[in-house]
Design brief:
The complex is a heterodimer of chains A (264) and B (323). Chain A is mostly helical and 264 residues long. Helix content of chain A is 73%, strand content 0%. In chain A, helix 2 (22-50) runs antiparallel to helix 3. Chain A is globular. With 323 residues, chain B is α/β, with parallel strands linked by helices. Chain B has 2 domains: 2-243, P-loop containing nucleotide triphosphate hydrolases (Rossmann fold), CATH 3.40.50; 248-321, Alpha-Beta Plaits. Chain B has 11 helices and 13 strands. Chain B has a 6-stranded mixed sheet with strand order 5-6-7-3-8-9, with helices on both faces. In chain B, a hairpin with a 2-residue loop joins strand 11 and strand 12 (277-283). In chain B, helix 5 packs antiparallel against helix 6 and helix 6 runs parallel beside helix 7. The relative contact order of chain B is 0.13. The chains are: A mainly alpha (264), B alpha/beta (323). The interface between A and B is medium-sized, with 30 and 35 residues. Chain A: InterPro entries: ABC-2_transporter-like (IPR010390). Chain A: It comes from Parablautia intestinalis. Chain A: Pfam families: ABC2_membrane_6. Chain A: The chain crosses the membrane at residues 25-50, 62-82, 113-132, 144-164, 200-220, 232-252. Chain A: This is ABC transporter permease.
Chain lengths: 264, 323
């Protein structure tokens, strides 16, 4: 409880800090909107030419993309600065977290928020509403709950993957290169249904770097896209997110211990 | 208050690979060299003392401070800060210490200073009365009235360091670690800082361990100094005995009425001659200024004299070179 309260206090200061740069706020959100519009029109062109991608029509793809944007928006607002860890360790600024009586993780996570995530989230809401109307989705309460849980899980999966990646710099000092490869990879694949990339790729993004659970499997479940009925493991996004968070916590804790051994 | 016994800290420095995929290969590399940053250091700091911790860059000062504040884990030996082992009991230790690294700020960069302080009040769970009392006392003492509503990024270095020191003392720590607090700070701010530290020490009995390259800080604040070099303890004792021991060479400047030829004086050395002035240096145990003057006055007309005591900087230089 105390940690949640304290996190709230950190966020308050983070928001105050961001409010100092008002012009930046609007330019940031506007540029994210433009970026997403370009992305969506690229998918549009693709589908316009091929009509469908596998068994995914244009509004299915819109749903998939919006699903990702919703989760990415949430992830972005709260956790975008995970990649700052490298810089904090190199500069030694991480030390400040260790001389205060609070969890270093809480202090690091509460250090900042990013408003570019707000732009992603807005695109997600808009895209979802359009897709839901076009696909004539008639969801019961259960589906709505599952949808919300999966959006949050998707945010947490992205957070955990980046958390694990960022924590590697406790060992390597530099982790930016590896992290941006993963980021590029996520950006590339979340826009398309994973099954169009082939079987091996699908196994990879399901078992090894389980980013297909961010938006692909929840969309498969909610749009009923699985051939021959939905399998139970396709429901597992929330579980995957918890497992990844657990791994993240483990890597982080070991990393912080290692930091105490080596300094910067 | 602080007890350091046979403290050691070794760093494994990985051998950096070069060429293709160096970052990836470094990840799996187990090659490293060992650097001993702190090598068997023991010292104690008593309650309410201000101790100057001095040494060249890379001597191991910061590493020691980091072990005392719980950031780094000692490789061997033991450290206790008021009975608490800083690394194993990091949280308990963090509550009783204040730390300032002069070269980086621990404050929130983009928000008004007062917001940083409010957040620190939450982190340290400072009760309202203590918080208000400390703010009301420290802000005027440090002259922070004008900047309390300013974001840290707009502050001058002097203001920033003062704000950082104030931040480190809000929770009434028993011990204050200052790592080069006056580095790069202008003379006026430096004076503020020195007065402030000595005032807080007197008023609250705060124990202070201070690393610095500024000998003014040492002379103004510290009754005791600990000198380390290459991870070894070189000297631990009061400032006066250090001067006695390593500042044995004094100088005497004599200004004559007219220019005179160079000459020799027993137990002293003529080191410099300029116009009507001559400088003699001598060991404090071999002769006195009076003896030298006695010799000179009988032979030449003397206009003025000055005895020059060695400055701390010179003493420390002697100390480093004497090993």
């Amino acid at each position: 409880m105390r940690n949640i309260w304290l996190y709230g206090q950190f966020l308050r200061v983070a928001v105050l800090g961001k409010a100092q740069y008002k012009a930046d706020f609007f330019v940031g959100i506007a540029s994210v909107l433009v970026l997403n519009a370009v992305n969506l029109s690229l998918i549009g062109i693709l589908v316009y030419n091929f009509d469908t991608l596998g068994n995914w029509g244009i509004w299915d793809l819109m749903f998939l993309y919006s699903f990702w944007m919703l989760s990415r928006g949430i992830y972005g607002v709260f956790f975008w600065h995970l990649s700052d860890l490298e810089e904090m360790i190199v500069s030694g600024n991480f030390d400040a977290y260790l001389v205060r009586p609070a969890s270093p993780f809480l202090q690091f996570i509460g250090k900042e928020i990013s408003y570019t995530g707000v732009g992603d989230f807005l695109v997600g809401v808009l895209g979802f509403l359009l897709a839901a109307a076009q696909l004539k989705l008639k969801w019961q309460a259960g589906e709505w709950v599952y949808f919300v849980i999966c959006v949050l899980s998707g945010a947490l999966i992205q957070m955990a993957v980046n958390w694990i990646g960022a924590s590697l710099c406790f060992w390597t000092t530099r982790s930016h290169a590896a992290m941006s490869i993963v980021e590029r990879f996520i950006v590339l694949m979340q826009q398309y249904p994973a099954n169009i990339f082939g079987k091996y790729f699908q196994i990879f993004v399901t078992c090894f770097l389980p980013v297909a659970f961010i938006n692909y499997y929840p969309s498969v479940v909610l749009l009923n896209k699985a051939e021959g009925g939905t399998s139970f493991w396709q429901y597992l996004s929330p579980v995957v997110s918890l497992v990844l968070l657990f791994v993240g916590a483990l890597v982080w804790t070991r990393g912080v211990k290692r930091y105490a051994g080596t300094g910067n | 208050m602080i007890e350091v016994k046979h403290l050691k800290k070794e760093f494994k420095i990985p051998v950096q690979k070069k060429g293709r995929f160096a970052a990836v290969r470094n990840l799996f590399s187990s090659e490293y060299t060992i650097k001993r940053a702190v090598d068997d250091i023991s010292f104690c700091v008593g309650n309410g003392e201000i101790v100057g911790f001095i040494g060249k860059n890379g001597a191991g000062k910061s590493t020691t401070i980091k072990m005392l504040s719980g950031i780094l884990k000692p490789s061997a030996g033991s450290v206790t800060v008021d009975g608490i082992r800083p690394f194993e009991q990091r949280m308990e230790n963090a509550r009783q210490i204040g730390v300032v690294f002069g070269q980086k700020t621990q404050l929130w960069w983009d928000v008004p200073l007062i917001e940083s302080y409010r957040l620190l009040r939450e982190i340290y769970r400072i009760d309202n009365i203590t918080y208000q009392k400390n703010l009301e006392r420290y802000i005027p003492m440090l002259g922070l009235e004008e900047v309390i509503n300013k974001p840290v990024r707009q502050m001058s270095l002097g203001q920033r360091v003062k704000s950082d020191i104030c931040a480190a003392l809000l929770h009434d720590p028993k011990i204050l670690f200052l790592d080069e607090p006056t580095i790069g700070v202008d003379v006026v701010s430096k004076k503020y800082l020195q007065d402030f530290i000595s005032e807080v020490n007197r008023e609250k009995g705060t124990t202070v361990l201070l690393t610095t390259h500024d000998m003014g800080d040492i002379e103004k604040l510290c009754s005791r100094v600990v000198v380390i070099d290459s991870g070894h303890l070189m000297y631990d004792g009061d400032l006066e005995s250090m001067v006695q021991r390593f500042g044995a060479i004094r100088s005497l400047m004599v200004e004559f009425e007219e220019s005179v030829e160079d000459f020799q004086v027993a137990n002293a050395e003529l080191v410099r001659s300029e116009g009507n002035r001559k400088w003699f240096s001598f060991h404090r145990e071999k002769t006195t200024p009076m003896e030298i003057l006695h010799f000179i006055v009988g032979r030449f007309p003397v206009h003025d004299i000055e005895v020059i005591e060695p400055d701390i900087e010179g003493i420390v230089r002697n100390l480093y070179e004497s090993k």
